[in-house]
Write the structure tokens for this entry.
Amino acid sequence: MDLKTRKYNFIQELFKIDKEKVMTALERVLKQEIEEQLEISKAHKKELDSRLKSFKDNPEDVLDWEEVKRDW
């Protein structure tokens, strides 16, 4: 069974749920999955921290947007 069909079947089963406890547990799992997808990877966080430190150490060392556009 493909993912699209499985999702459809799951949604149909959701309509049959009449226990608050089950819905709460399903919502918790879905929320956790969404939050994990939004997390920044360690590599990206390291790169962002590096760039932020570089900017803080040298705030005047920036490129003018017009120069960047002209050069590219």
Q: What stands out?
A: Residues 18 and 45 are 42 Å apart (CA to CA). Residues 20-38 form the longest helix (19 residues). Residues 19-56 form one domain.
